[in-house]
Amino acid sequence: MADTRTERDSMGPMQVPAGAYYGASTQRAVENFPISGQGIPAELVRALGMIKAAAATVNHAKGILDDEQLRAISQAAQEVIDGVHDEHFVVDVFQTGSGTSSNMNANEVIANRAIELLGGELGSKDPVHPNDHVNAGQSSNDVFPTAVHLAAYVACVEQLLPALERLRESLAAKAIAWTDVVKPGRTHLMDAVPVTLGQQFGGYARQIELGADRVTAALVRVAELPLGGTAVGTGLNAPEGMTEGVIAELRRMTGIDELREAENHFEAQAARDALVELSGACKVIAVSLTKIANDIRWMASGPRTGFGELRLPEIQPGSSIMPAKVNPVIPESVSQVAAQVIGNDTAVTVGGLSGAFELNVYIPMMARNVLESIRLLSTSCTNFAAQAIDGLEANEERCTELSEKNLSVVTALVPAIGYDKSAELAKKALVEDRPLREVVKESGLLSDEEVDRILDIKAMTQGGVR
Questions:
Q1: Are β-strands 12-17 and 182-187 bridged in parallel, bridged antiparallel, or unpaired?
Q2: What CATH superfamily is the domain 142-397?
Q3: What is the pLDDT along the chain (466 residues), one digit of tens a residue?
Q4: Which fold has domain 4-136?
Q5: Among the CATH numbers 3.30.70.100, 3.40.50.11190, 1.10.40.30, 3.40.50.150, which is that of 406-460?
Q6: Residues with catalytic annotation?
Q7: 46 vs 38, 80, 154, CA distance in Å?
């Protein structure tokens, strides 16, 4: 049995693996782009399958496909959606910037599988043609970016937003639990007036909540689909009503009612601003996560010579040479993910600004990076919550000890004795290595009762003594 078969496209014959569902156009792309060994993301393959299935339904209603073609294309497209034919999506992600190679990969896989279902010969393009039937009324230039938007929207709704909510809930639970745990605040990495651990973690929870809001806001634009613009935005060769019908089918298939046709197809195909916006929202989340993870690493540093205000769950040995050492590995993992997401966003930004005239030609790379960012943030947030935040403990004794040593509480004395005198007393306490409270009482500027009332560190976390 031959190892290859001969297929043809507009450039002539091409040898294709005998059992492959893809054809000549895909094989050319495989040979032209031996770049990374990494295909387009699986989420994007699924989205292409959905678009082809929806288009088949509409094209059948318009008389472009007969009953048998519809049945076979629909089944083949559903198999693509289900991941049955992932091994046949072989084009490298760093390919033609429009995604034409991957769109043709989908067309050929679905066409050849449909031919097989109808008893025909692979590569014959009869009775199902990859361009005339599977791609009818479409162009790579509107299908591929539509698939990217669809994949990103689904990934955010199904993965990222639930993961962010999981982390927010975990942080918010600690904020409630630690309402009364007072500790030194820190600005410029130096001692500052007191805060509670609850206040800090409430701030972290709000950061994550706002990150989710930013993603949700960006999805409003991502829900605008370029489909219907065909080659350059004019809609040439798209039958009347096809776009509305396909998007209605996509809403039915996904349950995403927000999906809609782009208000302006020239914007929707020439620019990828919605992806840049979504990537930017992911970057903000990465920045927030880095802040939170680093704060927790600092507060959990020790156990004896660091801040020691928090205790992270001990989940693995931290050193191959130092026995009993345990490191903050989950926050470290989160920070590395954040760095990757920030790097991805830089590439997405370059891709977005590099479009020319009626088409952006960086779409596969942008899709890869945005979808990777969504996936990494989703898994990292869930893991951060489960492996670190849920089991995080407050070292209340240490927080109290540090609070008593905190000279910045002298700030509360300013209304009573003035800034200069307060500074003088704080410096005296520091030089003499004595408790501030003791030095202030010794000064005789205030009664002992007044000193104790003003230097109430819990009251300071609520704005001070009134």
A1: unpaired
A2: Fumarase/aspartase (Central domain) (1.20.200.10)
A3: 479 999 999 999 999 999 999 999 999 999 999 999 999 999 999 999 999 999 999 999 999 999 999 999 999 999 999 999 999 999 999 999 999 999 999 999 999 999 999 999 999 999 999 999 999 999 999 999 999 999 999 999 999 999 999 999 999 999 999 999 999 999 999 999 999 999 999 999 999 999 999 999 999 999 999 999 999 999 999 999 999 999 999 999 999 999 999 999 999 999 999 999 999 999 999 999 999 999 999 999 999 999 999 999 999 999 999 999 999 999 999 999 999 999 999 999 999 999 999 999 999 999 999 999 999 999 999 999 999 999 999 999 999 999 999 999 999 999 999 999 999 999 999 999 999 999 999 999 999 999 999 999 999 999 865 5
A4: Fumarase C; Chain B, domain 1 (1.10.275)
A5: 1.10.40.30
A6: 188, 319
A7: 16, 6, 11
Residues 117-132: b if buried by 16+ CB within 10 A, e if exposed? beebebbebebbbbbe
User: Which residue, chain included where needed, has tokens 């084009």?
Assistant: 91
Encoding tokens for residue 391? 């089991």
